[in-house]
Q: What sequence folds into this?
C-alpha cells in the first residue's frame, strides 16, 4: 500500500509541475502579445480600438490620433473594426458609427488611415466599409483623398471612391478637378462596372456640369450595354431634377428603346423606368413600351412610362387592356384607371379571367375591373357572384372593384352586407364598397353601426356617414358613446363629409369639449370645412384656443378663419392666440385674424 501511495504522489507531483509549466507559458505568451506590434503612449492597438468605442468624443479623438501616429502597422486591426458588417439591432453598431464620424471629423490627417481601411476591404458599400462612410462624411474636404483613390490599382478601392463620391455629389456640386477625375473613369476605366458607377455618380449631382452631361452623351457609345444604359438613364433623370425639358435629357432615347429589348431583365426594367423620367419626350418609345407591357419584369414600368407620356400613349394602353395577353392587360388597365380613362376596356377577357381556376388570375381580373370600370352590364352581376369566391383575397379585390362603381353597384348591397357578418371575409373592403354606394346601402346601417363599435380601424364610421341622413344621424349619435374608439370613428366619418356634415352641426359643437384630444381635433377641422355655415360654433371654437393640445388650438384658429367675418366675436381670442407659445398656433391665428377681418390671405 505504501509503495502505491508513493507512486501516486509522484504522479500528482509531475502533473502539478506540468500544469505550472503550461500556465507560465501561457502567461509568457500573453505578455509577449501585449508587447508585439505598434504602440502609442505605451498602449497597444487593442487598447486604442477599445477607446474608439467610447461614448466620449474626446476619448475617440485621442484614439484616432493614436492610429494616425502608429500608421501602417496598425491599419489591419483598424480595418477589421471599421469594416464590420452593420447590424442595426447590435449595440456595437452605435460605437462603430461614432468611430466613423470621429475619423471624418479629424479631416486630412485621418485620410491615410481611411484609404488603408478601404484597400483592406473588398466591399465598397456602406454596410461593410467604414473607410467609405468616413470619407463620404467628410464631404468636400474628403474630395482630394477620393480622387487619389480613383487612381488606385485595386478595382475595389476605385469602386469605394465612386460610392463615396456619389453621396458627396448628391448633397451639392463637386469641384472641377473631381468632375474631371470621374469623367476619366467613365471614359477609360477597364472595368465596365466601374464605368457604370461613374455614370451613376456623374448624374447623381443636383446640377451636373455641361462637361459631365457631354461625357454621359459620349458614354452612350460605350461598348458595354450596362454602361450605355446607365448613361442614358442618367441623362433622362436630368429632366426630373431640372423640372423642365433639358436639351440633352432625351439624347439617350435610342439606347433606352434598345434596352427594352435586352436579354437582361434588370436592363429592361431600368430602361422602362428611365423612359418614365422623360415623360412626353419619350413619345418615340411608345411602340417599344407597348411591346414591353407583357414583360413580367419590366411590364409595370413600361405601363408607367406610357402613362407619363400622356394622351398620345392612351391608344396603345387601351389596345393592350383589350388584348389577349393577361400581363399586358393588367399593366395597361392599372394605368388607364389612374389616368381616368375608364369604360374603354372590353369586359370579355376580364370576365373569363374572373372565373379562372387560378386565384391569382381571378384577383388580377378584379383589379383590372376596378381600374378601368368597363361599361358592360355583365360586369356588376359577375362581381356580385364573385363575392362568394373561396379565396379571401379574391373576395377582397372584388369588393374593391364594386366600390369603384359607386352607386351603380347598388345591386351588390345584399351580398356585401352578408360579408359584414362573416369574420373570415374582408369586412373592411365590403365596408368601403357600401360607403361608396351611398344612401342606397342604408339596409346595411345596423350592421355598420355594430362594426363601428367593434374595430377602431375598419372604416365603418366613414361608411355610415355616407349613407345619407340616417347615416349622419347614426354617426352623430355615436359621438356620445363612452368609448373613445367609437367616438373617434364617428368624428372621422363626419370629417370625411366636409361641408356635407352640416346636419351634424350640434353634435360637432358638443364634440369640441370631448375628453379625447383627437375627437376635439377632428371636430375643429370639420367645422372649418363647413365654413361660414358653422358660425354657431364660434364661441366654442374660441374656447378651444386655450386647449391644452396645440393641434386642437391650431385647428380651432384655422376653423375660425374659415368661418370668416361671421367669427368677428372671436377676434380678441385670436389676437391672444397670435402670441401662443406654439409657432403653428401663432401662424394659424394670425392668418385667421386676417380672414375674420375680411383682409384675406391670398
A:
Amino acid at each position: 500500500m505504501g509503495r502505491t501511495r508513493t507512486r501516486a504522489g509522484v504522479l500528482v507531483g509531475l502533473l502539478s509541475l506540468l500544469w505550472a509549466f503550461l500556465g507560465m507559458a501561457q502567461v509568457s505568451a500573453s505578455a509577449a502579445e501585449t508587447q508585439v506590434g505598434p504602440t502609442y503612449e505605451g498602449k497597444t492597438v487593442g487598447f486604442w480600438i477599445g477607446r474608439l468605442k467610447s461614448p466620449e468624443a474626446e476619448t475617440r479623438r485621442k484614439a484616432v490620433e493614436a492610429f494616425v501616429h502608429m500608421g501602417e502597422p496598425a491599419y489591419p486591426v483598424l480595418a477589421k473594426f471599421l469594416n464590420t458588417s452593420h447590424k442595426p439591432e447590435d449595440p456595437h453598431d452605435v460605437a462603430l458609427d461614432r468611430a466613423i464620424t470621429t475619423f471624418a471629423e479629424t479631416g486630412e490627417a485621418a485620410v491615410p488611415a481611411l484609404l488603408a481601411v478601404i484597400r483592406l476591404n473588398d466591399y465598397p458599400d456602406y454596410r461593410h466599409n467604414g473607410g467609405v462612410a468616413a470619407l463620404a462624411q467628410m464631404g468636400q474636404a474628403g474630395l482630394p483623398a477620393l480622387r487619389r483613390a480613383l487612381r488606385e490599382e485595386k478595382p475595389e478601392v476605385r469602386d469605394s471612391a465612386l460610392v463615396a463620391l456619389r453621396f458627396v455629389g448628391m448633397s451639392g456640386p463637386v469641384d472641377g478637378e473631381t468632375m474631371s477625375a470621374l469623367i476619366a473613369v467613365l471614359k477609360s476605366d477597364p472595368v465596365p462596372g466601374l464605368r457604370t458607377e461613374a455614370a451613376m455618380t456623374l448624374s447623381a449631382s443636383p446640377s451636373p456640369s455641361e462637361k459631365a452631361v457631354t461625357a454621359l452623351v459620349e458614354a452612350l457609345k460605350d461598348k458595354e450595354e450596362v454602361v450605355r444604359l446607365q448613361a442614358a438613364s442618367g441623362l433622362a433623370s436630368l429632366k426630373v431634377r431640372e423640372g423642365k425639358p433639358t436639351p440633352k435629357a432625351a439624347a439617350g432615347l435610342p439606347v433606352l428603346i434598345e434596352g427594352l429589348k435586352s436579354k437582361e431583365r434588370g436592363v429592361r426594367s431600368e430602361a422602362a423606368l428611365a423612359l418614365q423620367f422623360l415623360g412626353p419626350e419619350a413619345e418615340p418609345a411608345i411602340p417599344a413600351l407597348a411591346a414591353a407591357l407583357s414583360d413580367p419584369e419590366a411590364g409595370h414600368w413600361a405601363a408607367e412610362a406610357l402613362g407619363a407620356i400622356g394622351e398620345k400613349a392612351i391608344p396603345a394602353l387601351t389596345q393592350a387592356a383589350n388584348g389577349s395577353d393577361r400581363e399586358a392587360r393588367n399593366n395597361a388597365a392599372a394605368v388607364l384607371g389612374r389616368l381616368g380613362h375608364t369604360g374603354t376596356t372590353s369586359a370579355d377577357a376580364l370576365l373569363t379571367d374572373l372565373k379562372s381556376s387560378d386565384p391569382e388570375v381571378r384577383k388580377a381580373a378584379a383589379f383590372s375591373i376596378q381600374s378601368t370600370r368597363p361599361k358592360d352590364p355583365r360586369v356588376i352581376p359577375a362581381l356580385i357572384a364573385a363575392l362568394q369566391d373561396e379565396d379571401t383575397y379574391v373576395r377582397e379585390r372584388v369588393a374593391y372593384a364594386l366600390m369603384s362603381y359607386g352607386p351603380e353597384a347598388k345591386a351588390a348591397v345584399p351580398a356585401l352586407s352578408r360579408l359584414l357578418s362573416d369574420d373570415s371575409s374582408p369586412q373592411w373592403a365590403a365596408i368601403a364598397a357600401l360607403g361608396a354606394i351611398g344612401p342606397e346601402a342604408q339596409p346595411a346601417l345596423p350592421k355598420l353601426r355594430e362594426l363601428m363599435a367593434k374595430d377602431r380601424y375598419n372604416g365603418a364610421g366613414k361608411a355610415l356617414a355616407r349613407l345619407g341622413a340616417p347615416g349622419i344621424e347614426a354617426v352623430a349619435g355615436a359621438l356620445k358613446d363612452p368609448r373613445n374608439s367609437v367616438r373617434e370613428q364617428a368624428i372621422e366619418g363626419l370629417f370625411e363629409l366636409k361641408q356635407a356634415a352640416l346636419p351634424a352641426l350640434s353634435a360637432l359643437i358638443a364634440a369640441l369639449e370631448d375628453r379625447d384630444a383627437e375627437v376635439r381635433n377632428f371636430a375643429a377641422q370639420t367645422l372649418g370645412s363647413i365654413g361660414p355655415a358653422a358660425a354657431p360654433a364660434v364661441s366654442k371654437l374660441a374656447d378651444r384656443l386655450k386647449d391644452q393640445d396645440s393641434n386642437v388650438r391650431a385647428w380651432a384658429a384655422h376653423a375660425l378663419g374659415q368661418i370668416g367675418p361671421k367669427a368677428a366675436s372671436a377676434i380678441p381670442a385670436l389676437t391672444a392666440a397670435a402670441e401662443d407659445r406654439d409657432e403653428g398656433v401663432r401662424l394659424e391665428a394670425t392668418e385667421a385674424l386676417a380672414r375674420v377681418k375680411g383682409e384675406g390671405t391670398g
